[in-house]
Amino acid sequence: MSDELEKYIQKNRDRFDDGAPSDQLWQKISNDLDRHDARKTGSKRALRVWQVAAAVLLLITGWLAMDKIQTDGRNGVAQEVIPVEIKEVEAFYAQQISEKRQTMLALTENRPDLKEQFSDELNELDSAYSALKSDFGKGDPEEVTNAMIWNLQLRIEILNRQLEILKEIKTEVNDETII
Description:
Layout: H1 2-11, H2 13-18, H3 23-81, H4 84-107, H5 112-134, H6 141-178
Helix pairs in contact: 4-6, 5-6
């Protein structure tokens, strides 16, 4: 059968070579190819977007898991290592700090600039205290304890100064109002 086909092709070669597809046929082929390429490009782009989204999700999940593990580890060690006496001292100072901080926040309600400045100072000491607390089991316990107590006392002293400043400001404002 293939011999007959070959003979037919050889015999009619001129007719095959002369005949060219119409412009309409080439246009249809071109349109089909363009649509196929557009679908292919669109699906590749969508696939790439999903791949990037999945990678970002994995990175965030991994980071959160590691952060949770590290935080749990630090807190677990700190809670187990810190003696009860230090926890009692911490609770005593924490109550005083909380009361003074509430008073300071109430007095700075109409002064957001002062409120932010005063809060920033205290937040820095809070961060330092958290670092000391997490280092408790790593260094000299007496030295870390003294640093923790000093930090708590310093916060109370700063809050007292802030409250004095706020009372002076309030007195000056009242004096100006009277005049």
